Amino acid sequence: MPRMLALVAAIDRFTEASGRLLAWLAVAMALLTALVVVLRYGFNIGSIAAQEAITYIHGTLFTLGAAYTLKRDGHVRVDIFYRRFSARAQAWVNGVGSIVFLLPLCAFIFCISWNYVAESWAIRESSPEPGGIPAVFLLKSLLPLMAATLFLQGLAETLRSAAVLMRASE
Amino acid sequence: TGAGREARSAGPGTGAIAGEQAGYHWKIVTTWPKNLPGLGTAPENFARMLGEMSGGRLTARVYGAGEIVPAFEVFDAVSQGVADAGHGAAYYWKGKIPSSVFFTAVPFGMTAQEMNAWLYYGGGMELWREVYAGANIEPYAGGSTGVQMAGWFNRELNSVADLKGLKMRIPGLAGDVFTRAGGTSVRIPGGEIYTSLQTGVIDAAEWVGPYNDLALGLHEVAKYYYYPGWHEPGAMLEFIVNKDSLAALPEDLRAIVKTAARAANQEMLDEFTARNNTALRDLVENHGVQLRRLPDDVLKALFDASEEVLAELVAADPLAARVNASFQDFYGKVRAYHHISEQAFINARDVVLPPERKDP
Amino acid sequence: MSGYIALLMFAAVCLTLMLGYPVAFTLAGTALAFAAGGIIAGVFDASFLSALPGRLFGTVNNATLIAVPLFILMGVILEKSRVAEELLASMARVFGRLRGGLGISVILVGTLLAASTGIVGATVVTMGLLSLPSMLQGGYKPSLAAGTICATGTLGQIIPPSIALVLLGDVLSSAYQQAQLSMNIFNPKTVSVGDLFIGALLPGLLLVALYMVYVLVVAWLKPEQAPPAEQEPVPASELLKGLVPPLLLIAVVLGSILVGAATPTEAAGVGAVGALLLALAKGQMDFSRLREVSRDTMEVTCMVFMILIGAALFSLVFRGFGGEELIHHFFEQLPGGVLGATLVVMLIIFLLGFILDFIEITFVVVPIVGPILLAMGLDPIWLGIMIAINLQTSFLTPPFGFALFYLRGVAPDSLATGAIYRGVIPFIIIQLSVLVALWMWPALATWLPAQLAR
Ligand code: NA
Ligand code: NA
Asked: What is the ipTM of this complex?
């Protein structure tokens, strides 16, 4: 059990640190959007690359931030019964839910997107727009990365629930 | 007018019902919303022809953009066997395969008639197959819109100086050309073109031609309708088929796929030719749209910029260089004869027709 | 027929959602389990699943969904810097002794915000962040507050410009052309996005008016549920200090759209930066608060997007099991007459609205039913507005309406989910009565476009 909790703590630290860093992208995205508007409206300057950069920031924010949200229990639930459950019952829901829903889902997304992303890497897929960002392969890589980070945090949540259940049964 | 109607799809769902006793059942994904007039009817026609010509042994069901995969995922979906076939336009895949643009349209390139001749008799198809071979995809010409319109404008273009600072939604190579010629090309998602033209985020937007543009309602938010479509003189669309799906078919069905594609290819051009002119009349007579021709110096500036853009594209990609060589070689030859045939005749009929029967 | 498995899956997910595991993963996980079972039983074509990466990348690459985090950021900043609270308090004071003044203020602010984007996830969440704390603090009954916010938050779909109406307009326009072609009309009349925008105006404003009437009636009958603002007189200068800056911000957001500086999507970014500047000017923003703001924004954004991703997988599997053919099958057995057909269509769209988002339904259902209904002679603008309001109602309906998920995601734990469910019921009744009114007086949707077309 201590070893298990150490693993949970390590995953938590990773998710927390990366999440705190990623969160700044929200502010960066707003500033860049406002900049695009001002440059275009005020100075007739249009930049396809800047517009695409907003998409890149946005994609990174919501794919890689999902694990952090899971850690903070920010993914919404239909909690009409759940909120009345005991801590033990809630741990059952979370543990079983992870094992039945979340972990297989992440494993599936990771595997099914592997080939899709590899093909993109193989040709170093670029933007279809001239002047766009020539790194579509990186943008696509967010899919398996999302699955991996979410899986990791899902594992931590499963172990945390297991710990609650084991502690309760001691 | 009967022929076009005869070729209409029998409606959604018929393919699936026939498919229950079929030997082969294909999924066709498209870059268009389901049943989009003109562009979206080609895959429906193709699917219907496959079923009819094979006596129901090969049936297909068409999925519009977003149904199985979003529009710009069609190529990957066919390449990786998610779908057996797809319908779209080759230049959408420029980020994957730079030379693909030549198989749809390049600025100041060939007309529909010339494109078909290049593909089928000028070595174009062989090159196209080579270009797509790495993706495990077999291409077929998939219909053409004919010469498109230059687009909808809220500012008049009287000289090349008017391009300066003009904000236009014009994607792809043409957008690059437009920027180099002095304009500003802006990325606007399809769903926001209408509002952006209305409020003035953009001064202009290009779409297809009268038949499709009328349906989108851009005439409600833009004053001037400019021609000619310098950037898409004969936009060629494509059917793409996964090679494994094709290889699984017996020889006669493979021949049917090829022939059905060729028939659907012609079918689309016929439909656009018939419908564009009635739609244009509607736009001008009932909606007060003002038709304008791009001035010569604007066309010249766009042409010079196009030459630059194409030269850079060709310099960066050896395969694009080979395709361009074949394209330009054929273009030069076909132009020589078209100069004294199609073009001379169209000019001649303008000379001889009495004024009241002349076009606007 | 495997189509019935699609129905079974629909029922199963309704049950599994009740367990309380996060909605996004329950949707996706249940669909995945059904797909796996279907593959083993040989009734599911596995290639449907390989379409998932393309669909997910479509979400990453979708340029209009960018409005979601931008809008949320604006909402979080306005909440944390107490600008929203002061705005609503000042507005409520303007209404003086009028009971329900705060509720009216919330509806007004929501209507203004609805005129920017039309993505439900963005507007409901933002309205929740902006006004829920104020309404609870102001002594409003939690269910009334939740209902008002949910309903107002979904207005963005109806009040133009709205991305939902744009997509609906595109699909309807194709369906309308197809309907006319099937009647041998080769130079068809068209319906444009603009027609839908104008057509939505009266029904949208009617909804706003009815929401307000409801709040006023409650406040009048049961003052304790919607108490008036504090009574002691406030100097006009105080009031203006609370009102002017945030109203200026809203003016900048809407203005940036109207003068053509920004698309509705980009306007959300303008609003977020404007809110940031406003908070800085008020001395309510420093590094540590901005850090907190950015983390909250990311958390809520990911909550919204994971639901979209869960719904994307669910609808893919639903389609793989032939759910679409099943819908088509229903339509082939439509009861005779326009009324019966329309009712069935509306019922199916309403039910699908529980699990599929607006975009999915627009692409899945409208192309099937549009040409049939329009060939029966229904007006395309009217049909579009009916579908839009119907979906808006569906998103409000417990227990699975998307708007409820989104509000739950940003509401404090002290607000019971049951209170949210109870609170939206009167608003659902208002929505339904507007649908009935539209049925009886189609001119509500078609009159204004016809006037402007002259
Ligand atoms: Na075009
Ligand atoms: Na809106």
From this structure: 0.90
